[in-house]
Amino acid sequence: MAKDHGPSIKNDAKYEALRKEGMSQEKAARIANTPNTGKKGGKAKKYEDRTRRQLYDKAKQVGISGRSKMSKDELISALRNH
User: Compositional bias (Basic and acidic residues) spans (predicted)?
Assistant: First the structure.
């Protein structure tokens, strides 16, 4: 029987198993609180389907330097390799 870790942990058994594997409390809690929907990945558009401006904005968000001089293909490459 899994110990009750309070309302902040949604899946106590999963949390305990992850802690026994050596995960930190924070990481184990994050994983134990994630709902298992069976879905993988997000719904973001492919980089190739985005405009240069959208790619530029994403590059700015993640902190890629030199982005203002990059072409669309260069931005895609920089984002994938960041």
Answer: 1-29, 45-60
